[in-house]
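To whoever is on call:

I kicked off a structure prediction for a single chain this morning and the downstream step that reads the tokens threw a length-mismatch warning. I double-checked the sequence; it's 358 residues and nothing unusual in it as far as I can see. Pasting both halves so you can look.
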Amino acid sequence: MQEEEKKELQTKNDDKFLKFPNSPASNQMMTVVSHAGNLEDFSHRIGENSHSTQLDFFEGKTNELSQKIVYKTDNTETTIQLDNVDLFSKSKKPLKKILTYTLIKLSQANINDNPTDDIKLSFPLQDLVDLGSYSSQATARQAFNQAMNPLTSIKLNGLVKDKKEQHKITESEIEVLFTGARIKKGIVEIYLNKRVNWQIFALQYFSILPKSYFSLSDNAADSLLNISILARKRITEIKKNGYFNLGFRTLHTILDLPDENKTKNPGRDIKDAILNALKEINETNTDDMNIEPIFNPNGNIIQFLDEGYAKITLKNQFENYFTELADKKNAKIEQTIKKREEIAEKAKVKALADKMKE
């Protein structure tokens, strides 16, 4: 292949993806917002399925209608609080994609460690139309206006451990993430709270997200976003096999589908919802991945959820991105091992020299 053709192919592939933050705290915030209105059930489900995450759920006073979840892992502790949960529930559909695009724009911003003023992110309202989320600027404007109040009501605080050090995500006990938002002459403006350490909160790790995410239905979009997030954690498997698996029980939780014991039609409400979401992703991302549902067609809904899974095979640039991350990780591990061996060898030489002096 000629060099010009390689560059053209690379450009085409790059145009199909967007870089977005994939740090623990930002992922947890996205998850909580996605399940607003059903946080108690969600925290129960994910607590049962997670061995590395401790979840504490708190509900505010009835007249405040606020909820919060505390995530605790070995390296992080994050509290996400949503005030006026009803507002989040009603605006959840437009909010999720607008919040995702806001984080994508955040990954492109050059943010200083100690800004003196709140930081402004801006992008044309037309972006949401071009990406396929909305059919016109009028509908995009309506959706953004609906999402604006909950977007600017997300509160957070937490700690991130880096080796032996601890870094605070916010300066005070709890802070709102976005201090303001508006549309001015067709340009969306979102203000980031200067008292949030945005590097620690979101800009440590990144993944890539197919642009098709923005044109997908709600269930398919949520599934694709979580596939991209999970792929970042499964880079060793992707490097070795070219694929990784995602259990249907996990997808059941991600998509906020009804409890299998409480719905009269689990085949329609759970099984079909999962399979249709995966089919939609397959049909819109044929060059980048293949998702094969693996399950017993004669099994009941419990077997479908507990034993079934999606085999996700990445292809082309999508696969290359994660295999390159795996190569960098392996190189870093090898470098660390080599350094430790050198330190150990120097210690042996010094010990021998000291012994000879004696």
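Update from on-call: the warning came from a stale cache, not from the record. Cleared it. Sanity check on the structure: Confidence is low (pLDDT under 50) at residues 1-13.
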